[in-house]
Amino acid sequence: MRRAVFRNPWLPYALVAPQIVITIVFFFWPAFDSLRLSLYRASPFGDRLIFIGGGNFARLFGDPAYFRSAATSLGFSLVVTVGGLAVALLLASLANAKIRGLALYRTLLLWPYGIAPAVAGVIWLFVFHPSFGVLPYLLSFVTTYQFNWFLKGWVALALIVIAAIWKQFGYNLAFYLAGLQAIPGSVLEAASVDGAGSIRRFFAITFPLLSPVTFFLFTLNMTFAFFETFGLIHAVTQGGPGDATSILVYRAWKDGFDGLQLGYSAAQSVILMLLVIALTAVQFRYAEKKVTY
Amino acid sequence: MTRSALSVLIAAAILLTGVPSTSRAATEIQFWHAMTAVLGERVSDIANKFNASQSEYVVKAVHKGSYPETLNAAIAAYRAKQPPHIVQVFDVGTQTMLSSGAVYPVYQLMKDHSIAIDWNDVISPVRGYYSTTGGNLYSMPFNSSTPILYYNKDHFKKAGLPDKPPATWDAVESMAKKLKAAGVKCPFSSAWPSWVLVENMHAYHDQPFADNRNGFDGLATTLKINGPFGVKMMEQLSRGAKESWFTYGGRLNKAEALMTAGECGIFTTSSAYIGNLTRASEGKFTWGTGPLPRLAGFPQGNSIIGGATLWVMRGGKPEEYKGVAQFFKYLASTENQAWWAGVTGYLPLTNSAAKALEASGHYVKNPNQKTAIVQMNAGKTTPNGQGIRLGNFNSVRDTIEEQMENIFSGSKTPKQGLDDAVAKGNDILKEFAALYR
Amino acid sequence: MSRGSALAHGILVASIVLVAFPLYYAFVISTQSLDQVTSLPPKLAPSTHLVQNYADAWARVGMGRLLLNSAIVALAVALGKIVISLLSAFAIVYFDFRGKQLIFWMIFITLMLPVPVRIVSTYQVVSVLGWVDTYWGLTVPLMASATGTFLFRQYYRTIPDSLAEAAQLDGAGPLRFLWSILLPLSTANIAALFVILFVYGWNEYLWPLMVTNSQEMRTAVIGIDSLIPRTSQLPEWNVAMAAAMMVLLPPVAVIVVMQRWFVKGLIETEK
Questions:
Q1: Which of C129, C213, C215 to mutate to test the interface with B (most CBs of B within 10 A)?
Q2: Fewer CB in a 10 Å sphere around the end CB: N or C, chain C?
């Protein structure tokens, strides 16, 4: 714990004031409002507000569709995260040689990070288009199966997963490359002198040494897949077909904005909030433990 | 002499240069709508025509997004105490508006401003849908349509079918099968799956959609779409999906993309699609229209109205409402009604307008625009055919379409899918009803 | 070239091609005419309608205004957040004051509630303030989370105490210290944060969708939604792709130009 350096009766308050004000107005106020609203049944125009306590939550937990949505969110996030990290790690390991132009490669791989998920979705939407897209066209030479993602849930999910992994790929790769480059060559050389084969070396030494990077990327990708893919889903599948791509955050938005059921939507937001708190608390404690100053 | 001549000259100069009177600025009226592309331009046109016809009021037509987005914008604005004066709300939002307490009923508005409108001249399906039990209209009819059938004449020729639309669902099936055999990618499809294939089909065959006379006698809390008619309808469509003569194209009006691309042989959707289809098909393919197909063994009903109406929101100033009343009076004139229906393809909302269009030979030049009118006139108006008015109808419709997708993909049987739609739908309806107990 | 590094080059090039292909394909589509778009087999070489399509996309959605709005949001969020985070982190690390722990947790708890979760209520708050459909409503709520503060705090904690002590001995006050010493040291972090926040502000989808109603206030990412051929419009994917290209260019350019600081900064945040 560092020793504070400056003493001043009012300056620190002035310095934190902008952030605190914004935090109170745009974080705490809405958060409490969400909490409050989740206990009510609310009419769209605000003319009726009926207190129903845990009624919205009971309705959520009694609805198999809600659990399906949670399962979809979790499954989708895990596939995007694990799939994305595995591919990135594999490629980074194979590419981890002392080669020139690494910085250039990195740049050329990182730029999809700048593409909005919704825009990525639109591009993939066209690549997958049943009538004009290049992918179904190529696949039609291999199989007569109709990749109609309006009707087939798994096709729609696959489309979203691919677009999401594609978007995150360069970012994950860049991190793994940096992490691998940071491992002292001496450690790996010592292991090979010991007679360890390259695969064993990888799992016994490299992978554990990369665990901070892996952990960081894991939480980041999970958060991305859980929340940031909203734009992707809204632009491409709108939660369909059926409810195949209806992830939790999309549901919460849809029930609130399309369905105008504000209390019900707020209850969903509260549950998401608890989920995120749990996730962040775990990450914080792990990160703080690992770091020494 | 020179002085009066000078003042005459000055007055003339002012009139000629059109310098507006600076004593009073025109009152602005905010009109929020959800029309895009060609239809959006027509909305701007009619607002501009009104503005040019007088100088006291200026109607500002603002596109606010899709129908749900426009409604949400109005709600947010209302809660922030700055509502628009006029907002276009789609049919499924009717009950939400009626229950809200935030509207200034149109019949009341016109009465308060002593403007006589012949409400009896409004065509009965529209009048029946948007009025309360007293027969008074709460919102101003603006753009109404009903679903009809479209068919691609070129594909029909290719499949060796006569140039006549199918009149029954059995005919649709046999024709679609022939189209499929001839290599048509999308033999039959439909946009607005719930609106056309469930809501309209029930009314078209005099079947109830929900209790309480589809919500007209009181807030409905039970859907009735899983009866023998509903199941039979879904069974045929599910068979079509399995046998690939029915190509499902997505919710809402997504499937129109298939018809626009010229891929479909037979297609059902709103009569308002005529304008877009005309533009898209020009030089590419020829098409025709016909009434909706019927399912054998069920009575005759009528198709129901879709589209939107204009609602007036409370919270404005008296002089602004005077302007709104004037604008509505302008809209309601036969000349403007006929113009609007003619250029958009929406139904003419008054009998006078319909007669005027007929007399001007408009339907001779645009025969497809008459199909919807003929269909409505040929139907029988029954209690089940007046319309459907449900709270949270947007969510209910979405639920139904979600289950339809499960049925068409084969993961649920028609009965199971409909039962699930009813269960979830009832839940949503009861939530809304609980607000206004 | 050794076998190892040849493989490495090969893999990296293959990855680049894989990653770039969808974008290349989108670019090709954006240069085609409508007929070419709808005909199979798909062509992989650019065609000649580039200017036409881009001009079309530009005119149809008022792309100039959309891009301007996105730029305003991205810059305001990036700069605004950098300033307030820097000041807050400075106060938290270098001062001792009553309520510091509480304020610390108040700020960091915002990391636990991303915008999509509090979206509906934030909208109510913004409409009460009358900020719906305004630049204020678009930018300020996006400044409420603590990522920047976290970054600066971690970084400041690694700076040796001796620096601050020396400044105090020299008679410099806290603000002087901040301006002359801390700020120059922080440039790498500021640059990295700028890239992250600019991209974030430019690409934010859900919040601008909710808080804007009129086309004039929309940002580019959602403004191009009407160009996506959905329903009864012609399948003008060429125009849609032209719009997509215009929208993704600025944030990608920022990343490419500033990528050195970006990666450095990202590596710092994970510590």
A1: C213
A2: N
